[in-house]
Amino acid sequence: MTIRYVLDGLTKYLREAKIASARLEAEMLLAHALGVDRLDLYLHPEHALTEEQYQRVRALARQRVQGEPLQYLLGSVPFYNVELKLSPAVLIPRPETEELVDRIVKDFRAPPSRVLDLGTGSGAIAIALAKTWPQSRIVAIDVSEEALALARQNALANGVQIEFVRSDWYSALTDSFDLIVSNPPYVRSSALDHAQREVQREPRRALDGGPDGLEAITRIIRDSVHFLTPYGRLYVEIDTDQGERVRQLLLATEVFSRADILQDSSGRVRFARAMRSA
């Protein structure tokens, strides 16, 4: 069977399973199975697959139709200025989180000396910032040993130096930081029970923010006052309907001289930003 034949059949199979962007996903899965670039599929459409390659493609396609996220099947994903390995132990980085990194980089005229990434997962935010600010000291924490192991691999693969610490939020920390950033669990528990199959394959503790989605965010904001330097900044990714409540949480600390709720590129509330007073 040729690349052309398999690609057409795979596209039809995914389309019948109601997979969005079936052709694109078929190209990505086939290229991954063959170990080539997507362009090569069209440069050599009459190339014949070996039986082993064909069975590999079939296995990937079955997993995808059963709801396995494409990013887990491919094993990696581009994020901002880096490439990250992925596994079901970590959340799949979203474009909104890339926007968060970009906003932080643009907000800082000079790189902050000390940066803390809370709940690092794959290491996405910490590694992207370390690539941008190689002179900054960056600490990344997570409660999951599996996540930290993967994040360490990603940092090594991207050639950056990061201090990884196993910690339940701030519990293992003693230092203070000029920047604290987090993409925490912020989805309501009840909403996850009805989420898409792909979302339900991701680690629940990286998504579940409790009954109101604010459990982790509340703790991050409340305790940040003990770990931010004077004029230090806090950035948190939030859900689209949490803006006003998060702003009130920030103001309730009585230490932030500035608290902003920001929108993403599609115009939806997505980020909170605050600056500690002196």
β-strand percent reads 15-25%
Summed up, the helix count is: 12
Can you identify the CATH class of the largest domain? Answer: Alpha Beta
CATH superfamily name of the largest domain? Vaccinia Virus protein VP39
CATH topology of the largest domain: Rossmann fold
Mean pLDDT level = 96
Largest sheet: 7 strands, mixed
Task: Compute the CA-based radius of gyration.
Answer: 21 Å
Tally of strands: 9
Low-confidence stretches: none
Principal-axes shape call: elongated
Distance between the termini: 68 Å
The appropriate CATH architecture of the largest domain is 3-Layer(aba) Sandwich
Number of domains: 2
Question: In terms of structural class, how would the helical and strand content be classed?
Answer: alpha/beta
Level of helix content?
A: 40-55%
Order of helices and strands: HHHHHEEHEHEHEEHHHEHEE
Q: Which strand order does the major sheet show?
A: 5-4-3-6-7-9-8
Describe the structure.
This protein has 278 residues and is an alpha/beta fold. It has two domains: 3-66, Helicase, Ruva Protein, domain 3; 88-276, Vaccinia Virus protein VP39 (Rossmann fold). The longest helix is centred in the first third of the chain and has 15 residues, at 51-65. 42% of the residues lie in helices and 20% in strands. The strands form two sheets. A seven-stranded mixed sheet has the order 5-4-3-6-7-9-8, with helices on both faces. The chain has a two-stranded antiparallel sheet with strand order 1-2. It has helices at 3-16, 22-34, 38-43, 51-65, 70-74, 95-107, 124-132, 145-157, 189-192, 197-200, 215-224, 243-252; strands at 76-79, 82-85, 114-118, 137-142, 163-166, 177-182, 228-237, 256-263, 269-276. The model has no long low-confidence stretch (mean pLDDT 96). α1 packs parallel to α4 (51-65). The radius of gyration is 21 Å and the shape is elongated. It contains twelve helices and nine strands.
